[in-house]
Amino acid sequence: MAAGVGKTYRMLLEGRAELDAGHDVVIGLLETHGRADTANVAEGLAMVPRRRVRYRDTVVEEMDLPSILRRAPELCLIDELAHTNVPGTEHAKRFEDIEAVLDAGIDVLSTLNVQHLESLNDHITELSGVRVRETIPDAILGRADEVVLIDLTPEALLDRLRAGKVYPAERIDAALNNFFKIENLSALREVALRQVAEEVGAKRLTTELVGSREESLAADAPQAVGERLLALIEPYPGAQRLVRRAWRSAQRLGAGLDLLWVRVPGKQLSEEEQRSLAALRQLASVLGARMIEEESDDLTNAVAEVASRRGTTYILIGGSRPARGLARLRTPLPQRLMQRLPGVDVRIVADRSRRPNGSSGSSGSNVESV
Amino acid sequence: MSVAVVVIVGCAGALLGIGAGYWLPPHGRRPARNRLLPEGRRILLPFTGEEISRRSFEAAVRLAKAENATIMPAFLAQVPMSLPLETALPVQCARGMPLLEAIEQRASSQGVPVDSRVGRGRSARDALRKLLDQEHFDRIIVSADEDPRAGLSYEDLRWMLDRVPAEILILRPAPEDTRRISTETLTGHF
Q: How many CB atoms neighbour CB B182 within 10 A?
């Protein structure tokens, strides 16, 4: 959830339990941040010493990946999953080191704050006003066998901070004035609880449907974390309504949103269409959606290709005008998409302003009915 | 003989038409009524919060009908100085998008074309300035309301009068006229 809730402490407790059960456990990397309780619980666990890496004019201590691989324990405890390594080590990011450890057949316990997840970064930045630079792809979390949420009420965390259990005394005031505000911590807690609930749900579904973890990862790796929506748009004013509705659906599902425009090759856009396209790009950027533009003659194929590439679980399209003439013989787009993308929901977004009761309004009330 | 040729040519033409109708790439996946906007004037209706004055909305609708114009409601999102300008703003959008939807529903149901916009800047004024730099609007309608939930401040209005090269219509509703267009009673869920 956030710094100071007890992630490292819990990881060490789990490591000790495994050690007591007779397994070979080592600490690959530990960040105690000077916390005595954390250091105490690490006592008795073997630790791979850090290595010193020279970077520019300084020497930095980093996790010693080659030594861990040589030591080859059954279980390795590696703190701070989202850490960025200094240049000169094997990988740019610690999660890449951990992938190498896993590939060597070593189990790993690691720690992560929820704001380091790539898909949540924008949302949490806006909530807290603080941009977290070190992020990891959501798929890394999707690879975990288990995700354990270390939950603590914001009040309890602030008490721990004030008591000097999180940061040294000189950093407490700065922390309280910046990230450690009750509203930030409450929002982070909500996001963390929701994320873990989605993780648990996704794991349960893939296990029920496919069976073993290996099979489920092979079959559904891109879908391991939550839902992903894809809205099909064209540069015209009504597309904004579709985008807004898709975004709201994505918010409710806690899902990512992609917008796809399939452009007919060689087609020149009118001035009006260019303006609409610019407005759609701006809307996508403000909403945090990803705008994808593909050029193809075959809409269905282009959508299917993007949907499988992006791990789409829902497709949203606007209402089509009634087919006329020989076009009636053609299979409608929703059916074509459902045939090409079995297992993906296809939703047609209605134009609410065309509802028969959509124009009713009361002139006497303070809130106008719309 | 000639009748048979006509029949054969006719059948071949029909088959060709059916084939072309089936195989040609699809066009026009959107309703025809959405395809074109009138080539008339563009009326910008900027707002920053969760509601707008019903007076300014009604004025925009009246003018749009009279001039065959398009109403362009614009949500002005504000990026805190601590964040990059291109930051996504989902929390602010959770307030602004439903109102855009409400305005669009309301205007569309009255037969007025709508084309929404979203502006983003360090302040509402900055967002509006960026929007005006990118596009031309013939007229801007704002309500003079010091309530920050309702729209732009008096200072912002003064700036607009000084700097913006468009017709500006500022409406100050009577104090007892507190009616507003808000998101509370959108048609259907949003």
A: 21
